[in-house]
Amino acid sequence: MNIFRLLGDLSHLLAIIILLLKIWRTRSCAGVSGKSQILFALVFTTRYLDLFTNFISMYNSAMKLIYLVCSYATVFLMYFKFKATYDSNHDTFRMEFLVVPVGGLAFLVNHDFTPLEILWTFSIYLEAVAILPQLFMISKTGEAETITSHYLFALGSYRALYIVNWVFRFYTEGFFDLIAIVAGCVQTILYCDFFYLYITKVLKGKQLTLPA
Amino acid sequence: PSGGETHDEL
C-alpha cells in the first residue's frame, strides 16, 4: 500500500458517499445517470467475486464490501425508492454498446484465460467506460448540479491517483499491470474535459454548464 | 511481474 493508492481509494470512497448522500438527503436523483450506477455495480460485482476466497487484508475486504453495498444501495434508491425523480429521458446511453465490446475484449486480452481472471479483466475494462452514460447525460442536459460535479471530480481523481500509484509501484516494486494501467489511462482521459470545466467553473463558484 | 495472479488492488 502506498499513499497514492490510499488517497485514490479514499477519493473513490468519498465519491460514492457523496452521491449516496446527495440522493438520500435531497430524496432525488435528478441529473444522475442510473445506467452509470448500474455499470459501477456490475464492475464491483465482477471484480470482487474473490471477496471470500482470496483474503488480502481487513482494509481490502472492508473496502470491497463498502463499495458493493453502496453501489447497490445507490441503484436501489434510483430505480425503486426515488424512481419518480429519475430522469430517464436524458439517461439514454445504450449500455449494451459498452458491455458487449468490453466483454469481447476481456475474452481476447487478459492475463489468464480463467473465469475469475476474465471477469476481473471485464471489470477493469468496463470501469474505464462506465462513466460515459453520466457524461453523456450531462452533455444532453447541458449542466450538472454542483454536488454532482464534486462527485465526478472525486471519482475522476481516484483513478488519476491510481496511475501515480502504478508509477510508484513500478519504480519501487517493479510491479506493473498493463491491463489496469491502459484502462486506467483511458478512464482518466475521459474526465479531462470535465476536469477543465470543474477547475475553471465550479471552483470559482459558478454552475457547471457545458457550452451548448 | 506483470499483472500478478492475485489482484491486491481494489
From TrEMBL, chain A:
Primary location group: endoplasmic reticulum
InterPro entries reported in the protein's UniProt record: ER_ret_rcpt (IPR000133)
Compartments reported by the entry: Endoplasmic reticulum membrane
Species this chain originates from: Saccoglossus kowalevskii (Acorn worm)
Homology family: Belongs to the ERD2 family.
TM stretches of this protein: 62-80, 92-111, 117-138, 174-199
The entry's keywords: Endoplasmic reticulum, ER-Golgi transport, Membrane, Protein transport, Receptor, Transmembrane, Transmembrane helix, Transport
Membrane topology: Multi-pass membrane protein
Protein name: ER lumen protein-retaining receptor
Pfam families attached to this UniProt entry: ER_lumen_recept
